[in-house]
Predict the 3D structure of the following.
Amino acid sequence: MKLIYNFINITKIFILFVYYLLFVFYSLKILLFSCLVFNNQAGFILHIKDTENTILNIEDVDGNGYYDVNDFLDMNNKEILDMNDNKKWDLVLMNPPYDRSLHLKFLEKVIEISDKVVSIQPVRWIQDPTAKYKKTSDYNKFENSILKHIKDLEVINVEDAGSKFNITINSDLGIFICDKNGGYNYEIKNEFPYNLYEKREFPFKIGKYKDNKDKNFVCICSMQGHPHRGIPAYKCTNKYGAFINGKNKEGKTLEEAKKSNPRFTLGNIDEQLIAIFNTGDEAQNFYNMCNTDFWKFICYKSTSSGQVNIKFLPWPNDYSEKWTNEKLYEYFKLSKTEIELVKNTMKDLYKQIELHGNKQ
C-alpha cells in the first residue's frame, strides 16, 4: 500500500487504491463478485457486479430535493441489499466524507451490508489517549460496531496525508480493513506517552476571568495551533503570559493586553477559563512549564480534531518551583528513548511551524 503515497491528487490516489485492492483481495482472477465504491471527492457510489458497473439508484430519503450522503445513511439495510439481489456485497471500497463523525457512520453502515470493507479515513478517534474517559467519545460510541471489526489498519501520518494527498486535515489518516471477525488490537497501548494519562483533579483552581480579575492566573486555551494550515494544536496557553494580581509583566490587564495584540483572540473574555494560583510565582512557573518542549509535546499528542483536552492532561502537582524539560523528564520518569522521542517530535513540529509561518 506504500505505493499510493506517490500521488498528490486524492482522486488519482483513490482510483489507484481501488484497482490495487481489487488485485490484493481477488488477484484479478475472480470476476464474479459484487463491490461498492464510495468516492467522496468524485461524488459517486459505483456498484460493480460481475463485469458490469452501474451507479446506484439512491432515493432522496430525507426529502431535501437532491441526493446527498445522508440519503444512503437513512436507507434501511434491506433496501440497500435489494440492489444486490438481497445479498451482502463482497467488498466495499470507501473514501467517505470526513465531516466530523460522518465517516464513522458510513463505515458502521457498510460493515453491516458487506463481507469486507477497505476505507481511507481519519484515525485520530482511535489515537486519542483520553477517549476512554469521555462518555460521548467516538471511541466509546463505535467500539462495538467498528473497532471490534477492524482486521488491519495502516496509519498515514498527518504531514504525509496533508502534503501528498493535497488535502487539509488535522489528524492522521488510516487505511482500514474491516470484516465480520476483526482481530486488530485497537486498544490504546500502555506505552509512552499514553501511560501518563489518567482522569484526575486539577492541581490548581479553574475559574472564569470575570470572577477572578485581580487574582494570580494564566489563561487556559482549548486550542492553540493552526489545523487549517497543517499545524495541529500543541499549546494550552497563549502569549498573554502570567497575570500577577490581575496584571501581566507589562502591567496590563487581560482586556488591555488583548486590545494591544488583537490577533490572539480569546472570544468572550469574561468567560475565558483561567488557572488560578495562590502566588504570582506559581502562576509564572505554571506558564513557563506550559511552554517547555515536553509540555508542548504532551499537548500535541493530546489533540483531537484540533482540541487539547486539558481536563485529562498529566499536570504536575506542584508549581512552587520552576519546571524545566530536564525536571519534567525526571518527574515523569522518562527513559532515554522516550526523551529522544520528545526531542525529535518537537524538532519536526518546529520545522512545520516555520514552514507554515506560525508565529505563536
User: Anything to note?
Assistant: Residues 195-349 form one domain.
